[in-house]
Write a structure and sequence with these properties.
By secondary structure, the chain is mainly α. It is built from 25 helices and no strands.
């Protein structure tokens, strides 16, 4: 039988076994589907505190201020106090009490204090405690992922509202899967994705538009990339771009992650990654060409879709060949011309009316092209 931080029924009419927290948490700013999860990131923690004060308007304000202050001293809290009648509260499971115990749980997770974690999760209000956000919007599941505490993650995922907790966002809009993907914690990510809403987690974005796959590719975690791609919604994941327009394969190429680049290309059945552009008009071939990443250039060209890749231009009207020519990257220039559409590539001009040859000469790379390619400026 579980311990409880709840009180017997109070004068408000709650039935036995219910707590005042159960009655009031749905009125908190950002409450999501009864989980206490702060999904609405527009609500700041001061607003959250105000919502709590409103919900407990019958309580003594000075006593509440003291209780909130105690939340910052979670390391000195004895969990036994919450089951003792001398605490003097009308209901032990009000929001202030939940906040204090939640702070203690997060600290125990960070310090890998297994006994303290088990004791708190054995309480009747464990689900409400686990779902209570801190100042950064993080709930217990966020902290468990950050601490690489897989056993604690597994225990938190046993809670009835675990699927809802997995979609809770911190102040930056990150769900627990984002944190796992960014840090390369594949086992924990697998546990999260085993929930019924695994696909929904895959398609969640944080405030900068980053998804779990984008985080994994930018950080270079190859096992994580493979896990995410085989977990479903592959085409949707590959087509996702952050607010700067970067997609997964652009991050992989920019970081010279050839293995991840090959894995992404193998998963792409429609070439959706190859024609996507970021805000400056660069496609992934342009990213590879401009950085002199010859291995990536070869991989990308080997995937096909040559017209889309080779003849696409950025915001300055430059194609991949022009970008490589401007930088004097001879090996990349040769590879691009060998791929095909040579005349079409050389005929294109940027906004200054220069073609690839003209840009090479303008930058001082006089030996990059032979005379047969015609005049430098059309």
């Amino acid at each position: 039988m579980k311990s409880s931080v709840t009180a017997p029924a109070v004068a408000s009419g709650l039935t036995a076994g219910e707590s005042r927290f159960t009655a009031t948490r749905s009125r908190l700013p950002g409450a999501h589907e009864g989980s206490g999860c702060a999904r609405d990131q527009g609500a700041s923690m001061p607003a959250m505190s105000q919502g709590i004060a409103d919900a407990n308007s019958s309580a003594d304000p000075s006593a509440q201020d003291m209780a909130w202050g105690a939340a910052g001293e979670a390391d000195s809290i004895d969990i036994e106090m919450f089951t003792e009648p001398w605490l003097g509260l009308n209901s032990y499971a009000d929001e202030t009490t939940i906040n204090i115990v939640a702070a203690r749980l997060k600290q125990a997770i960070r310090l890998h204090q297994g006994d303290a974690i088990d004791e708190i999760l054995a309480l009747e209000e464990a689900e409400a405690i686990a779902a209570f956000p801190d100042e950064e919007g993080c709930i217990a599941l966020h902290h468990a992922v950050l601490a690489d505490a897989r056993l604690t993650v597994a225990n938190l995922l046993k809670l009835p509202a675990a699927a809802s907790h997995a979609l809770c966002k911190d102040a930056g809009g990150r769900i627990p899967l984002h944190l796992a993907a960014r840090s390369g914690r594949s086992l924990i990510a697998g546990d999260l994705l085993a929930l019924p809403n695994g696909t929904e987690q895959l398609l969640e974005r944080e405030q900068q538009g980053m998804s779990a796959l984008l985080y994994a590719c930018s950080a270079g975690h190859a096992p994580m990339v493979s896990l995410l791609l085989k977990s479903g919604a592959t085409d949707a994941q590959l087509s996702m771009q952050n607010h700067g327009g970067w997609n997964a394969i652009m991050f992989a190429v920019a970081g010279n992650r050839i293995g991840i680049t090959a894995r992404l290309l193998a998963a792409d059945r429609n070439g959706v990654q190859l024609s996507a552009t970021k805000h400056d008009g660069f496609n992934v071939l342009m990213v590879a060409a401009a950085t002199g990443n010859l291995r990536a250039v070869k991989l990308l060209l080997g995937a096909g879709y040559l017209s889309e890749q080779l003849l696409q231009t950025d915001d300055d009207g430059r194609n991949a060949l022009m970008l490589a020519s401007l930088r004097g990257l001879k090996a990349v220039v040769i590879e691009l011309l060998r791929a095909g559409l040579e005349k079409e590539q050389l005929a294109q001009q940027d906004r200054g009316k220069f073609n690839a040859v003209g840009l090479a000469l303008q930058a001082g790379h006089t030996g990059l092209y032979v005379a047969r390619h015609g005049p430098a400026m059309q």
